[in-house]
Amino acid sequence: MDEASEGVVWCGKNLHVVATDRLKAVPQGQTATKSYSSGEYQLFEIMGSGGLYLEIAYANWDNGDRDVRATVVSESGPLRRLEPNRLRLGIHNLSGNKSWVELSQARVQSNNPSQWSNSKMATYDQLNIGAGLDVVNKLREVSAQEIGSKAIILGQTGTRKNYLCATFENENQWCPIIAFVLTRILPLLNEYTG
Q1: Can you name the residues that pair with 26 across neighbouring β-strands?
Q2: Alpha-carbon dihedral 117, 132, 2, 139, rounded to 10 degrees
Q3: Would you give the DSSP letter of residue 97?
Q4: How is the chain split among helix, strand and coil, in percent rounded to 5?
Q5: What are 84-127's pLDDT values in tens digits?
Q6: Nearest alpha-carbon partner for 165 in 181, 144, 184, 150
Q7: pLDDT per residue as tens digits for the range 157-173
Q8: For residues 53 and 74, is the Cβ–Cβ distance under 8 A?
Q9: Residue 5 — φ and ψ, nearest 5°?
């Protein structure tokens, strides 16, 4: 995790993600589990070629929920589909000191490209094509521990058991931040339709 220890991680499309020391109190907001709580955002900045700028947040909610979300998004270009506070990436607790995120992927809707995106189940190939880089290798660079289906890693048997996920240590903010970039931001920048 050399890049992350320096506070900057490079991703595809000449993007770099920068950890800031800015915190933002949130008096009331909706978490990824659709609960309402107060909490705090740890802010990260994403900068890229052509003046691209986004602000994303690692949200710690007072009710114990955690997620990653966009807070400031350019109003033009492919990222217009990533409305602030939509397509949140929920961070879920495992036993011990581990957490996990689901690697569902934001996609441009081929039948309505101007519509905002939803997240979809993605294979490894779809994740790689959408991000324009090897997603597993990039997640390993930021200390992801296990990457695979929720059925295999988490023992899930429900309707989302075939969705991919990644596990990491609870205190590792970089893994879910980069997972958000790889599964939400880059597929939209690349105008990936799946």
Answers
A1: 39
A2: 60
A3: T
A4: 25, 40, 35
A5: 667 899 999 998 899 999 999 998 877 776 666 778 999 999 99
A6: 150
A7: 999 999 999 999 999 99
A8: yes
A9: -65, -20
